[in-house]
# Entry
Amino acid sequence: MLYRTAGQFKTSYHADHALFPVKQDAWLLGIILIFAYAIIPMTASEFSFNALLIPVLIYALAALGLNILTGYAGQLSLGTGAFMGVGAYACFKIITAFPDLNIVVAIALSGFVSAAVGVAFGLPSLRIKGFYLAITTLAAQFFLVWLFEKWGWLYNYSSSGAIQVPNIKMFGITVAGPNAAPVTQYYFVLGVVTLVTWFAINITRGRIGRMWKAVRDMDIAAELVGIDLMKAKLSAFAVSSYIVGVAGALFVFLWRGAAEPNLFDIPLSFRVLFIAIIGGLGSILGNYLGAMLIVALPVVLGTLPGMLGIPIQSATVEHLNVMIVGATIILFLVVEPHGLARFWQIIREKLIMWPFPH
Amino acid sequence: MELLNSIFIKPFQDMVAAPDFLLQVLWEGLVAGVLYALIALGFVLIYKSSRIFNFAQGIMVVFAALTLVGLHEKGIPALLAVPLTLVVMLILAIAIERVVLRPLVNQPDIILFMATIGITLFLVGFGELIFGGENKVMITEQLGIPTGSFTFEPFGGFVSIEQKDLTAVIGAVVLVAALLVFLNKSKMGRAIRALGDDHQAALSVGISLSTIWILVWFIAGIIALATGIVWGARAGVSFALEVIAYKALPVLMLGGLESVLGAIIGGLAIGILEKLFEIYWGQPLMGGNTETWFAFVFALIVLLFRPQGLFGEKIIERV
# Structure
């Protein structure tokens, strides 16, 4: 009923390959965007901005970056956290060196730094494959976090070894730092995320995206049909690290407000990887669904015992939390290894057929 | 010039100038290497028989050690606590096979890999819930492991070797020897190797997949317990131990994912080299703590020349 495709005729090949071949998809996206841009900011509380909305967007962005590398180009990476760190530290250096620079420009530039580092660590992927490659990305993870700790220049030799976000104004409004209002930060992050998502959807649909998918499915075969493996793999590393770097800069500047090197340690990498895999590899939508699940789960679990009136110590809640997240991951993998995005696909197909069985 | 001197000449001068200190460093590296090799061995066994990259091996070490100490705290004598811990590891192996592996047969590698990360998180939460998150002391003396130390005076210097480290090395050698005999001579061991060679062929001659998987995970559990005891005796038992699992990963890369021999040699090489690098290059030149990444970068460089590791099976790709 809701998803009836009858009457929507395609008269050209071009129309058949449009972004929204079914009209209802475009309607749905419009409704979601209205919710994200108008309804949610009007109704959400300060707590939900900081604990749910902003982190969901930032984690989804990081997962999107990883998904381009792992889901589209097939190169498993375990070093996402460190590349987020590169973006964050680069942004910090740029902001402190040029305090008058617009923060959007600073974040965009820090993405390039992250992309350069990503390409450097992506070079081994030309020779090393599969799990061996995954472990080499751990080299990036451990080396970069060590560097954040030891290289004083990166954090301007501050005594704590941490980076602090100053108050940053853009067009007269404070967007980052301790004085910024959560709503402003939400809009800022949402704007960046929308832009990057639009870019990602189009790049994965186009020539480059198809090149990546060919490499993912079988790189030798891709090489035989004339795809330049070096160009395909390194461009995937560059685009992916760029997005991850931007996510890292947002992570520190628009959400955390301060960062220590160990924030970018391996748990962060795994968290982003969980989001990408539970959401669905090779899907853009999945990153958002996965991020909602992974961010909301601990928050819900943290408030649940209090609501039910069960007295539990906070340490116990923490431990239960870790345990339940682990169990949830296994459960999701067992039930639907292709992730939440596949769930949506199945539901959508059912809706198109409904109420007829075939 | 000054820099080149401090990189290429001075460290070696230091080594020659203080041979007793060098020996001490080498010994420390060797002991660490033995432990890396043990953890890597657990990985290799599981990877060989099921192509699962078992990220949970590190947490199994912690979990086994915690169970042992926890049981002892409940008043069970140490020598009884060891077999009881083994029973717990067996139950764990059966549970993992039932709940996680069986439904995920034939899924892509990355999904199984993620599932083992899920197991890791679950065990971290479960272990902390039951035993608490604080650091515990390994029951070294109760298990009859000597705690004194030998001292030598070679080259007119001074080298001290702790008896528990020596016990660890001897124990590891015995364990590895027993494992090799089991894998090569016993019927079950041959079944494991057959499964590693060709799943379908092994199934068609009547080898039970689920039994072998339980067995392999149980053996990994035994290795985890041995590693946990030894490492716990050196550094205390806590979830910080988990980081040594990461150390086993470059060992695997260096040795090759399928090679038992590679795991042992890779472990020893990385243990010794990272200690040498830390002492002679890392601390004077780079502000120390290079042990967190040296092994990875070293393995990365080796892999650039041999993409399947030193002893791994040659990767043959067909279209």
User: Anything to note?
Assistant: The mean pLDDT of chain B is 80. Chain B touches chain A through 51 residues (CB under 8 Å). The radius of gyration of chain B is 21 Å.
